[in-house]
Write a structure and sequence with these properties.
Two copies of one chain form a homodimer.
Chain A (H helix, E strand, L loop, with lengths): L13 H24 L3 H28 L3 H32 L6 H7 L5 E6 L11 H4 L1 H5 L1 E8 L2 E4 L12 E6 L1 H12 L7
Helix pairs in contact in A: 1-2, 1-3, 2-3
Chain lengths: 201, 201
Protein backbone atom coordinates (compact mmCIF):
# COMPACT_ATOMS: atom_id res chain seq x y z
CA UNK A 1 0.00 0.00 0.00
CA UNK A 2 3.07 2.26 -0.30
CA UNK A 3 1.75 3.74 -3.53
CA UNK A 4 -1.77 4.37 -2.31
CA UNK A 5 -1.61 8.04 -3.26
CA UNK A 6 -0.43 7.38 -6.79
CA UNK A 7 -2.87 7.20 -9.67
CA UNK A 8 -2.24 4.17 -11.78
CA UNK A 9 -4.38 3.64 -14.82
CA UNK A 10 -4.03 0.86 -17.31
CA UNK A 11 -4.60 1.70 -20.98
CA UNK A 12 -8.28 1.48 -21.81
CA UNK A 13 -10.19 1.54 -25.10
CA UNK A 14 -13.24 3.73 -25.75
CA UNK A 15 -15.33 0.59 -25.87
CA UNK A 16 -14.11 -0.58 -22.48
CA UNK A 17 -14.37 2.92 -21.04
CA UNK A 18 -18.00 3.38 -22.11
CA UNK A 19 -19.06 -0.05 -20.84
CA UNK A 20 -17.33 0.64 -17.54
CA UNK A 21 -18.94 4.09 -17.28
CA UNK A 22 -22.38 2.59 -17.72
CA UNK A 23 -21.75 -0.17 -15.17
CA UNK A 24 -20.15 2.21 -12.68
CA UNK A 25 -22.95 4.78 -12.96
CA UNK A 26 -25.51 2.07 -12.14
CA UNK A 27 -23.54 0.86 -9.14
CA UNK A 28 -23.19 4.47 -7.99
CA UNK A 29 -26.96 4.97 -8.00
CA UNK A 30 -27.48 1.82 -5.91
CA UNK A 31 -24.66 2.82 -3.55
CA UNK A 32 -26.07 6.34 -3.19
CA UNK A 33 -29.56 5.05 -2.36
CA UNK A 34 -28.08 2.64 0.18
CA UNK A 35 -25.87 5.38 1.64
CA UNK A 36 -28.94 7.59 2.17
CA UNK A 37 -31.14 4.76 3.45
CA UNK A 38 -28.61 3.53 5.99
CA UNK A 39 -27.02 6.95 6.59
CA UNK A 40 -23.68 5.39 5.74
CA UNK A 41 -20.68 7.67 5.32
CA UNK A 42 -18.56 4.77 4.11
CA UNK A 43 -20.88 3.99 1.18
CA UNK A 44 -21.16 7.70 0.38
CA UNK A 45 -17.36 7.92 0.29
CA UNK A 46 -17.21 5.07 -2.23
CA UNK A 47 -19.71 6.92 -4.42
CA UNK A 48 -17.29 9.87 -4.41
CA UNK A 49 -14.36 7.57 -5.27
CA UNK A 50 -16.33 6.12 -8.20
CA UNK A 51 -17.22 9.62 -9.34
CA UNK A 52 -13.50 10.32 -9.86
CA UNK A 53 -13.24 7.16 -11.95
CA UNK A 54 -16.22 8.19 -14.10
CA UNK A 55 -14.73 11.65 -14.67
CA UNK A 56 -11.49 10.00 -15.78
CA UNK A 57 -13.33 7.64 -18.15
CA UNK A 58 -15.31 10.54 -19.61
CA UNK A 59 -12.03 12.35 -20.26
CA UNK A 60 -10.54 9.27 -21.96
CA UNK A 61 -13.61 8.89 -24.18
CA UNK A 62 -13.68 12.53 -25.20
CA UNK A 63 -9.96 12.58 -25.93
CA UNK A 64 -10.00 9.38 -27.94
CA UNK A 65 -13.12 10.17 -29.95
CA UNK A 66 -11.57 13.51 -30.93
CA UNK A 67 -8.41 11.73 -32.06
CA UNK A 68 -10.45 9.11 -33.95
CA UNK A 69 -12.57 11.56 -35.94
CA UNK A 70 -10.76 12.18 -39.20
CA UNK A 71 -13.72 13.51 -41.16
CA UNK A 72 -17.30 14.67 -40.71
CA UNK A 73 -18.70 11.17 -41.10
CA UNK A 74 -16.43 9.80 -38.36
CA UNK A 75 -17.45 12.68 -36.12
CA UNK A 76 -21.13 12.07 -36.75
CA UNK A 77 -20.75 8.36 -36.03
CA UNK A 78 -19.02 9.11 -32.76
CA UNK A 79 -21.76 11.50 -31.59
CA UNK A 80 -23.72 8.63 -30.06
CA UNK A 81 -20.65 7.59 -28.06
CA UNK A 82 -19.94 11.02 -26.58
CA UNK A 83 -23.65 11.66 -25.91
CA UNK A 84 -23.99 8.39 -24.02
CA UNK A 85 -20.76 9.11 -22.12
CA UNK A 86 -22.13 12.53 -21.12
CA UNK A 87 -25.44 10.95 -20.06
CA UNK A 88 -23.77 8.33 -17.87
CA UNK A 89 -21.60 11.09 -16.40
CA UNK A 90 -24.82 12.97 -15.56
CA UNK A 91 -26.17 9.87 -13.82
CA UNK A 92 -22.99 9.55 -11.77
CA UNK A 93 -23.23 13.26 -10.85
CA UNK A 94 -26.76 12.64 -9.59
CA UNK A 95 -25.52 9.77 -7.43
CA UNK A 96 -22.75 12.00 -6.05
CA UNK A 97 -25.34 14.70 -5.23
CA UNK A 98 -27.25 12.17 -3.11
CA UNK A 99 -24.06 10.90 -1.46
CA UNK A 100 -23.08 14.49 -0.64
CA UNK A 101 -26.23 14.87 1.50
CA UNK A 102 -25.02 11.96 3.62
CA UNK A 103 -21.47 13.28 3.90
CA UNK A 104 -22.72 16.77 4.82
CA UNK A 105 -24.65 15.21 7.70
CA UNK A 106 -27.91 16.61 6.41
CA UNK A 107 -30.69 14.67 8.12
CA UNK A 108 -32.20 12.12 5.74
CA UNK A 109 -35.85 13.11 5.73
CA UNK A 110 -38.37 10.25 6.26
CA UNK A 111 -39.78 11.01 2.80
CA UNK A 112 -36.41 10.18 1.25
CA UNK A 113 -36.13 7.05 3.36
CA UNK A 114 -39.58 6.00 2.15
CA UNK A 115 -38.63 6.57 -1.50
CA UNK A 116 -35.48 4.49 -1.15
CA UNK A 117 -36.78 1.72 1.03
CA UNK A 118 -37.56 -0.52 -1.89
CA UNK A 119 -33.82 -1.07 -2.14
CA UNK A 120 -34.30 -4.71 -1.30
CA UNK A 121 -30.80 -5.93 -0.94
CA UNK A 122 -28.24 -4.15 1.08
CA UNK A 123 -25.00 -2.83 -0.34
CA UNK A 124 -21.97 -2.58 1.85
CA UNK A 125 -18.25 -1.94 1.90
CA UNK A 126 -15.84 -4.41 3.45
CA UNK A 127 -12.11 -3.74 3.80
CA UNK A 128 -9.87 -6.79 3.65
CA UNK A 129 -7.44 -6.97 6.57
CA UNK A 130 -4.16 -8.97 6.41
CA UNK A 131 -5.52 -11.59 8.83
CA UNK A 132 -8.64 -12.28 6.74
CA UNK A 133 -9.15 -15.73 5.19
CA UNK A 134 -10.05 -13.89 1.96
CA UNK A 135 -6.45 -12.79 1.29
CA UNK A 136 -4.92 -14.46 -1.78
CA UNK A 137 -8.11 -16.38 -2.54
CA UNK A 138 -9.70 -16.33 -5.95
CA UNK A 139 -13.19 -14.86 -5.93
CA UNK A 140 -14.59 -17.87 -7.79
CA UNK A 141 -13.11 -20.34 -5.29
CA UNK A 142 -14.69 -18.53 -2.36
CA UNK A 143 -18.26 -19.16 -3.58
CA UNK A 144 -19.52 -16.21 -1.53
CA UNK A 145 -22.96 -16.22 -3.15
CA UNK A 146 -23.59 -19.87 -2.31
CA UNK A 147 -21.98 -19.83 1.14
CA UNK A 148 -23.04 -16.53 2.70
CA UNK A 149 -25.43 -15.00 0.15
CA UNK A 150 -23.37 -12.03 -1.00
CA UNK A 151 -22.11 -10.96 -4.38
CA UNK A 152 -18.98 -8.81 -4.77
CA UNK A 153 -19.96 -6.26 -7.43
CA UNK A 154 -16.79 -4.16 -7.36
CA UNK A 155 -13.30 -4.15 -5.89
CA UNK A 156 -11.25 -1.05 -5.23
CA UNK A 157 -7.49 -1.58 -4.93
CA UNK A 158 -5.96 1.74 -3.93
CA UNK A 159 -7.62 3.96 -6.53
CA UNK A 160 -8.03 1.29 -9.19
CA UNK A 161 -11.55 -0.10 -9.60
CA UNK A 162 -12.56 -3.50 -10.93
CA UNK A 163 -16.24 -3.58 -11.75
CA UNK A 164 -17.97 -6.97 -11.94
CA UNK A 165 -14.75 -8.81 -11.01
CA UNK A 166 -14.11 -12.15 -12.66
CA UNK A 167 -13.93 -15.49 -10.83
CA UNK A 168 -10.15 -15.60 -11.30
CA UNK A 169 -9.68 -12.24 -9.51
CA UNK A 170 -7.47 -12.80 -6.45
CA UNK A 171 -8.39 -10.80 -3.35
CA UNK A 172 -5.51 -8.88 -1.80
CA UNK A 173 -4.87 -7.37 1.58
CA UNK A 174 -6.26 -3.82 1.66
CA UNK A 175 -8.86 -4.45 -1.05
CA UNK A 176 -12.13 -2.62 -0.60
CA UNK A 177 -14.99 -4.92 -1.55
CA UNK A 178 -18.36 -3.49 -2.56
CA UNK A 179 -20.89 -6.25 -2.06
CA UNK A 180 -24.60 -6.77 -2.45
CA UNK A 181 -26.53 -9.23 -0.33
CA UNK A 182 -28.84 -9.95 2.55
CA UNK A 183 -28.21 -8.00 5.78
CA UNK A 184 -27.01 -11.21 7.45
CA UNK A 185 -24.68 -12.10 4.57
CA UNK A 186 -23.25 -8.58 4.56
CA UNK A 187 -22.52 -8.81 8.30
CA UNK A 188 -20.72 -12.12 7.70
CA UNK A 189 -18.66 -10.69 4.86
CA UNK A 190 -17.58 -7.74 7.00
CA UNK A 191 -16.51 -10.07 9.83
CA UNK A 192 -14.64 -12.31 7.41
CA UNK A 193 -12.89 -9.34 5.76
CA UNK A 194 -11.86 -8.01 9.17
CA UNK A 195 -10.43 -11.43 10.05
CA UNK A 196 -12.85 -11.88 12.96
CA UNK A 197 -14.73 -14.74 11.33
CA UNK A 198 -12.35 -17.46 10.10
CA UNK A 199 -14.73 -19.83 8.34
CA UNK A 200 -17.75 -19.69 6.06
CA UNK A 201 -19.04 -23.17 6.85
CA UNK B 1 -59.82 8.52 -25.71
CA UNK B 2 -61.63 11.80 -26.37
CA UNK B 3 -59.62 13.57 -23.68
CA UNK B 4 -56.23 12.31 -24.80
CA UNK B 5 -54.87 15.84 -25.13
CA UNK B 6 -55.94 16.89 -21.66
CA UNK B 7 -53.59 16.68 -18.74
CA UNK B 8 -55.26 15.08 -15.78
CA UNK B 9 -53.31 14.74 -12.60
CA UNK B 10 -54.62 13.35 -9.36
CA UNK B 11 -53.49 15.05 -6.15
CA UNK B 12 -50.17 13.65 -5.03
CA UNK B 13 -48.16 14.03 -1.82
CA UNK B 14 -44.46 14.90 -1.73
CA UNK B 15 -43.82 11.40 -0.40
CA UNK B 16 -45.65 9.76 -3.30
CA UNK B 17 -44.08 12.16 -5.79
CA UNK B 18 -40.52 11.44 -4.67
CA UNK B 19 -41.03 7.67 -4.64
CA UNK B 20 -42.56 7.85 -8.10
CA UNK B 21 -39.72 10.06 -9.39
CA UNK B 22 -37.16 7.53 -8.21
CA UNK B 23 -39.04 4.58 -9.73
CA UNK B 24 -39.72 6.43 -12.98
CA UNK B 25 -36.11 7.57 -13.38
CA UNK B 26 -34.93 3.96 -13.04
CA UNK B 27 -37.43 2.73 -15.61
CA UNK B 28 -36.38 5.56 -17.93
CA UNK B 29 -32.74 4.45 -17.81
CA UNK B 30 -33.69 0.87 -18.68
CA UNK B 31 -36.02 2.06 -21.43
CA UNK B 32 -33.35 4.38 -22.85
CA UNK B 33 -30.75 1.58 -22.94
CA UNK B 34 -33.25 -0.72 -24.63
CA UNK B 35 -34.27 2.01 -27.08
CA UNK B 36 -30.61 2.47 -28.09
CA UNK B 37 -29.86 -1.25 -28.18
CA UNK B 38 -32.84 -2.13 -30.36
CA UNK B 39 -32.93 1.22 -32.17
CA UNK B 40 -36.55 1.52 -31.09
CA UNK B 41 -38.34 4.81 -31.69
CA UNK B 42 -41.36 3.60 -29.74
CA UNK B 43 -39.34 2.98 -26.56
CA UNK B 44 -37.53 6.30 -27.03
CA UNK B 45 -40.91 8.06 -27.29
CA UNK B 46 -42.01 6.55 -23.98
CA UNK B 47 -38.81 7.85 -22.36
CA UNK B 48 -39.84 11.32 -23.54
CA UNK B 49 -43.37 10.85 -22.17
CA UNK B 50 -41.94 9.80 -18.80
CA UNK B 51 -39.63 12.81 -18.82
CA UNK B 52 -42.71 15.06 -18.84
CA UNK B 53 -44.08 13.18 -15.85
CA UNK B 54 -40.78 13.57 -13.95
CA UNK B 55 -40.70 17.31 -14.67
CA UNK B 56 -44.24 17.59 -13.32
CA UNK B 57 -43.35 15.62 -10.17
CA UNK B 58 -40.27 17.78 -9.63
CA UNK B 59 -42.48 20.87 -9.86
CA UNK B 60 -44.97 19.41 -7.34
CA UNK B 61 -42.16 18.60 -4.91
CA UNK B 62 -40.54 22.02 -5.16
CA UNK B 63 -43.85 23.80 -4.76
CA UNK B 64 -44.98 21.74 -1.80
CA UNK B 65 -41.67 21.82 0.06
CA UNK B 66 -41.66 25.61 -0.25
CA UNK B 67 -45.17 25.77 1.17
CA UNK B 68 -44.24 23.36 3.96
CA UNK B 69 -41.17 25.23 5.16
CA UNK B 70 -42.35 27.60 7.88
CA UNK B 71 -38.98 28.18 9.50
CA UNK B 72 -35.27 27.59 8.96
CA UNK B 73 -35.39 24.17 10.60
CA UNK B 74 -38.19 22.99 8.32
CA UNK B 75 -36.27 24.29 5.33
CA UNK B 76 -33.10 22.49 6.41
CA UNK B 77 -35.00 19.25 6.94
CA UNK B 78 -36.51 19.48 3.49
CA UNK B 79 -33.13 20.01 1.79
CA UNK B 80 -32.61 16.28 1.47
CA UNK B 81 -35.97 15.95 -0.30
CA UNK B 82 -35.34 18.66 -2.89
CA UNK B 83 -31.76 17.48 -3.46
CA UNK B 84 -32.91 13.93 -4.11
CA UNK B 85 -35.69 15.21 -6.38
CA UNK B 86 -33.14 17.23 -8.35
CA UNK B 87 -30.84 14.19 -8.58
CA UNK B 88 -33.57 11.89 -9.90
CA UNK B 89 -34.54 14.63 -12.35
CA UNK B 90 -30.91 14.66 -13.53
CA UNK B 91 -31.06 10.89 -14.03
CA UNK B 92 -34.23 11.21 -16.09
CA UNK B 93 -32.59 13.97 -18.18
CA UNK B 94 -29.71 11.60 -18.90
CA UNK B 95 -32.16 8.93 -20.05
CA UNK B 96 -33.88 11.49 -22.30
CA UNK B 97 -30.48 12.46 -23.79
CA UNK B 98 -29.92 8.84 -24.79
CA UNK B 99 -33.46 8.48 -26.14
CA UNK B 100 -32.96 11.65 -28.19
CA UNK B 101 -30.09 9.98 -30.10
CA UNK B 102 -32.51 7.28 -31.21
CA UNK B 103 -35.25 9.75 -32.19
CA UNK B 104 -32.76 11.91 -34.12
CA UNK B 105 -31.84 8.83 -36.17
CA UNK B 106 -28.21 9.14 -35.17
CA UNK B 107 -26.59 5.80 -35.91
CA UNK B 108 -26.07 3.83 -32.72
CA UNK B 109 -22.34 3.19 -32.77
CA UNK B 110 -21.25 -0.44 -32.13
CA UNK B 111 -19.39 0.81 -29.03
CA UNK B 112 -22.69 1.97 -27.54
CA UNK B 113 -24.36 -1.29 -28.49
CA UNK B 114 -21.55 -3.16 -26.76
CA UNK B 115 -21.91 -1.06 -23.59
CA UNK B 116 -25.66 -1.67 -23.44
CA UNK B 117 -25.74 -5.29 -24.45
CA UNK B 118 -25.70 -6.54 -20.89
CA UNK B 119 -29.33 -5.42 -20.74
CA UNK B 120 -30.43 -9.00 -20.33
CA UNK B 121 -34.14 -8.73 -20.50
CA UNK B 122 -35.90 -6.86 -23.19
CA UNK B 123 -38.23 -3.97 -22.52
CA UNK B 124 -41.06 -3.26 -24.88
CA UNK B 125 -44.18 -1.23 -25.43
CA UNK B 126 -47.49 -2.88 -26.22
CA UNK B 127 -50.64 -0.91 -27.06
CA UNK B 128 -53.91 -2.56 -26.05
CA UNK B 129 -56.41 -2.70 -28.93
CA UNK B 130 -60.20 -3.02 -28.36
CA UNK B 131 -60.20 -6.61 -29.64
CA UNK B 132 -57.47 -7.75 -27.21
CA UNK B 133 -58.30 -10.37 -24.56
CA UNK B 134 -56.48 -8.08 -22.08
CA UNK B 135 -59.28 -5.46 -22.09
CA UNK B 136 -61.14 -5.22 -18.77
CA UNK B 137 -58.95 -7.90 -17.17
CA UNK B 138 -57.23 -7.34 -13.85
CA UNK B 139 -53.45 -7.52 -14.10
CA UNK B 140 -53.27 -10.04 -11.25
CA UNK B 141 -55.81 -12.37 -12.87
CA UNK B 142 -53.84 -12.45 -16.13
CA UNK B 143 -50.75 -14.03 -14.51
CA UNK B 144 -48.56 -12.74 -17.33
CA UNK B 145 -45.31 -13.59 -15.54
CA UNK B 146 -46.27 -17.23 -15.06
CA UNK B 147 -47.95 -17.70 -18.43
CA UNK B 148 -45.77 -15.84 -20.93
CA UNK B 149 -42.80 -14.65 -18.86
CA UNK B 150 -43.38 -10.91 -18.93
CA UNK B 151 -43.87 -8.35 -16.21
CA UNK B 152 -45.80 -5.11 -16.81
CA UNK B 153 -43.69 -2.46 -15.10
CA UNK B 154 -45.74 0.58 -16.09
CA UNK B 155 -49.03 1.51 -17.74
CA UNK B 156 -49.69 4.76 -19.55
CA UNK B 157 -53.35 5.74 -19.92
CA UNK B 158 -53.48 8.84 -22.11
CA UNK B 159 -50.88 10.91 -20.26
CA UNK B 160 -51.38 9.39 -16.84
CA UNK B 161 -48.71 6.91 -15.75
CA UNK B 162 -49.07 4.06 -13.28
CA UNK B 163 -45.69 2.79 -12.21
CA UNK B 164 -45.46 -0.73 -10.77
CA UNK B 165 -49.21 -1.31 -11.27
CA UNK B 166 -51.02 -3.33 -8.62
CA UNK B 167 -52.69 -6.70 -9.24
CA UNK B 168 -56.13 -5.10 -9.05
CA UNK B 169 -55.34 -2.67 -11.90
CA UNK B 170 -57.79 -3.28 -14.74
CA UNK B 171 -56.38 -2.99 -18.25
CA UNK B 172 -58.31 -0.72 -20.58
CA UNK B 173 -58.54 -0.30 -24.32
CA UNK B 174 -55.83 2.11 -25.46
CA UNK B 175 -53.54 1.43 -22.51
CA UNK B 176 -49.85 1.51 -23.29
CA UNK B 177 -48.10 -1.28 -21.42
CA UNK B 178 -44.38 -1.10 -20.70
CA UNK B 179 -43.22 -4.63 -20.07
CA UNK B 180 -40.02 -6.46 -19.25
CA UNK B 181 -39.43 -10.03 -20.27
CA UNK B 182 -37.80 -12.55 -22.56
CA UNK B 183 -37.82 -11.72 -26.29
CA UNK B 184 -40.35 -14.53 -26.87
CA UNK B 185 -42.62 -13.37 -24.04
CA UNK B 186 -42.49 -9.80 -25.33
CA UNK B 187 -43.53 -10.96 -28.81
CA UNK B 188 -46.47 -12.85 -27.27
CA UNK B 189 -47.56 -9.84 -25.24
CA UNK B 190 -47.51 -7.62 -28.32
CA UNK B 191 -49.63 -10.11 -30.28
CA UNK B 192 -52.07 -10.44 -27.37
CA UNK B 193 -52.34 -6.66 -26.96
CA UNK B 194 -52.99 -6.26 -30.68
CA UNK B 195 -55.73 -8.89 -30.46
CA UNK B 196 -53.93 -11.22 -32.86
CA UNK B 197 -53.25 -13.86 -30.23
CA UNK B 198 -56.44 -14.80 -28.34
CA UNK B 199 -55.09 -17.17 -25.72
CA UNK B 200 -52.13 -17.51 -23.40
CA UNK B 201 -52.45 -21.25 -22.88
Amino acid sequence: MADSGKLEYRPISVREALTEMKDVSEIMIDLAYSAALFNSDELAEEVMELEKRVDYLDYIINMNTMLAARDAEDAQNLTAVTTVAAATNKISDAAADIAAIVLKDIRIHPIVRKAFQQVEERLARAIVKPESILVNKKLGDLELAAKIGVDVIAIRRNREWTIDPEDKEKIQEGDVLIARGTPHGIDDLKSIALGKLKSME
